[in-house]
C-alpha cells in the first residue's frame, strides 16, 4: 500500500451516517475506504470534465472564434426549443 497521510475532517451528520451505513453493510471495511473511494470517483469525474473541455469544448470554441458566422443566434435556438416543447406538450395531451 502506498504511503498514507492522516487527515482529520468534519462532516455533516448525514454524510457521516452514510459512511457508517456503508461500512455496516460490509461494502467497505472502514470509513477510510469509503472516503478513498469517494475521492477516486471525484478524481475520475474531474479528469473526465478536463478531457471533455480540452477535447470537445475547446476545439469548438476555437472554430467559432475563427468563424463566428457558424454560430446560431440565441433567439433562434430558444425559438426552436420553445417550438419543440410546445409540440411535445401537444403530443402528450393527445396520448392522454
Q: What portion of residues is helical?
A: over 70%
Amino-to-carboxy terminus distance: 59 Å
Q: Count the strands?
A: 0
Strand content: under 5%
Key words describing this protein structure:
flat, 96 residues, mainly alpha, 74% helix
Q: Could you give a quick summary of the protein structure above?
A:
By secondary structure, the protein is an all-alpha fold. Helices cover 74% and strands 0% of the residues. It starts with 12 loop residues before the first helix and ends with a helix.
Commentary on this structure:
The protein has 96 residues and is an all-alpha fold. The protein has a domain at 13-71. 74% of the residues lie in helices and 0% in strands. It contains 3 helices and no strands. The longest helix is centred in the middle third of the chain and has 36 residues, at 31-66. The N and C termini lie far apart (59 Å).
Topology summary:
Blueprint: H1 13-25, H2 31-66, H3 74-95
Amino acid at each position: 500500500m502506498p504511503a498514507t497521510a492522516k487527515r482529520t475532517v468534519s462532516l455533516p451528520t448525514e454524510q457521516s451516517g452514510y459512511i457508517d451505513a456503508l461500512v455496516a453493510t460490509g461494502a467497505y471495511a472502514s470509513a477510510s475506504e469509503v472516503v478513498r473511494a469517494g475521492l477516486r470517483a471525484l478524481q475520475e469525474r474531474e479528469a473526465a470534465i478536463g478531457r471533455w473541455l480540452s477535447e470537445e469544448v475547446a476545439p469548438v470554441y476555437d472554430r467559432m472564434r475563427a468563424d463566428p458566422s457558424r454560430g446560431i443566434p440565441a433567439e433562434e435556438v430558444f425559438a426552436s426549443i420553445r417550438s419543440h416543447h410546445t409540440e411535445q406538450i401537444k403530443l402528450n395531451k393527445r396520448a392522454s
